[in-house]
Amino acid sequence: xxxxxxxxxxxxxxxxxxxxxxxxxxxxxxxxxxxxxxxxxxxxxxxxxxxxxxxxxxxxxxxxxxxxxxxxxxxxxxxxxxxxxxxxxxxxxxxxxxxxxxxxxxxxxxxxxxxxxxxxxxxxxxxxxxxxxxxxxxxxxxxxxxxxxxxxxxxxxxxxxxxxxxxxxxxxxxxxxxxxxxxxxxxxxxxxxxxxxxxx
Length: 200
Fold this sequence. Notes:
There is one protein chain. The protein is of the alpha+beta class. It is 27% helix and 21% strand.
């Protein structure tokens, strides 16, 4: 999937004289999928529990169930017709209580699911901060650190590993703007590995 329709040139303001937002660069399929999941979750605001999505090939899903077309926007149908690798995310039931790693370890997917996505909020500190081994003590250090940041991370992975099979989006709460999210292939490798392990 490429980025959405090309925006106007940067030097061409709209009718109100306001320059348009900068164009988004073309994204790889999994990066675009992670971005779509994060923006969907962002509509509910902050303080949400982790959310998991199954990723299915849209064209295959339509071939298996033609009635699905009535539930998809026309632009999604057009993208799926043009791109057999197009992915549709299907949100799963709310995750049970427990550590995220333990909960993910209990998930299994049927063969029709091509990948999975996860959106989760975290508090992070600079990587050079020395955290105690005790979880409670480490949490206290993080909570008290002046450079702590609340972030929302969305990770999308395909069942198989390899180049282009992971996409990540990170949004900082203090920069809560669609144009200020960070998008990359594998920005949070540990989380991506835990999500991909659900296909083991």
